[in-house]
Amino acid sequence: MERITFNEIPKEMMGNMISTENYINNSSLDFQLLELIRLRVAQINKCAYCVDMHYKELKHTGETELRTSTLSVWNETSFFTDKEKAVLQFTESLTELSKTDISNEIFDSLTRFFSTEEICNLTLAISQINTWTRLMRTFKSTAGNYKVTK
């Protein structure tokens, strides 16, 4: 049972979260890459609501079943590009910051593919989905009902 419904979340708080989401989605970062990040963070943080949402968003972008089903073991597959691998490594390091450091090697791998502005936006996107997963887990948002609207 949900502890706090979407309608009970303070409107100003939700407005600011959505505003940040819109900023990220309108940045130069590829939407499909953003959704890979979001799904991976949702998996790590065990947020069923967010896993459901971002799996459906990825499928809507045309992402393959093979890649979505192996995202949790991306580093053991050949299905992801070097660019995606750099982002996923950074995503995991930033999400599990208390367990691991963001080494120079991890950061430098991003600079091969992304500008300084894009790295800033990647960092914000990862931080934002970490915030969403924590909210949804705390509020016990119900998984399974999300519908892609685009």
TrEMBL record:
<dbReference type="InterPro" id="IPR029032">
    <property type="entry name" value="AhpD-like"/>
</dbReference>
<dbReference type="InterPro" id="IPR003779">
    <property type="entry name" value="CMD-like"/>
</dbReference>
<feature type="domain" description="Carboxymuconolactone decarboxylase-like">
    <location>
        <begin position="23"/>
        <end position="92"/>
    </location>
</feature>
<dbReference type="Pfam" id="PF02627">
    <property type="entry name" value="CMD"/>
</dbReference>
<dbReference type="InterPro" id="IPR004675">
    <property type="entry name" value="AhpD_core"/>
</dbReference>
<protein>
    <submittedName>
        <fullName>Carboxymuconolactone decarboxylase family protein</fullName>
    </submittedName>
</protein>
